[in-house]
From TrEMBL:
MF terms (GO), sorted A to Z: ATP binding; ATP hydrolysis activity
Source organism (scientific name): Metabacillus arenae
Domain ABC transporter: 4-250
Name of this protein: ABC transporter ATP-binding protein
Pfam name, any one: ABC_tran
Keywords attached to this entry: ATP-binding, Nucleotide-binding, Transport
GO biological process: transmembrane transport
Lineage: Bacteria, Bacillati, Bacillota, Bacilli, Bacillales
Amino acid sequence: MSLFTVKQLTKSYPAGKTAVNNLSFELNKGECLGLVGESGCGKSTLARCLLWIESIDSGSIYFKNEAIEQLNERQLHPYRKKIQIVFQNPSAALNPKLKIKDSLIDPYAQYRKELNLSHFSYTSKDAFVKQLLEAVELPSDLANQYPHELSGGQRQRVTIARAISIEPELIVLDEPTASLDVISQGAVLTLLTELRETLNLSYLFISHDLAAVRQMSQRIMVMKEGKLVDQFNCDHLFAEERHPYTKELISIF
């Protein structure tokens, strides 16, 4: 079943650069859809458009058959609860002045009147934070620490915990392991796979790393200079009909 549908999405900037050019795709419920392409190809711009952090020039974005671009700010509020994002740099994503427990509780505080949680239960702030930290395999005593006291891998696990705290249906993962060392990268990818299965999540996994995209995804899209040049199931990665740019990416991973 299609959870997210994008039709002919285009986004340009005042300087004249078209970052996303007439892009269309579907993301199915429960799947991880990979998006790979070199830096500057428009992947992160697409992510910001999907979350309506940035408006689009033309095209349509549907979440469960509802056109997002037609909603006003009040109508967008429940939509924002259903789709979350994990950014590349966890240090920039976390407020350095807030303890980890306060960063984790913030999404719940924003949406508590609308939430009907099934995987987590809120009996107290401390109990809720402990559940979230356990879900991402972090010790509960990190709750009272500040972001600078954690390792890069721990900080990224905290941002993942914050993303899952309100039990969204879709998480956009925008280069979630790019700032981590190799060991931390593998551990975070394994964690994300387990969470998708346990919490019935769907992912849009964005990366320039084809190996990571292949590990995580059931289907892959390839983006070049703002356009989708290839889409295929993972088991067709090495098929002869792959786009020349896809073959170029394959040759270097």
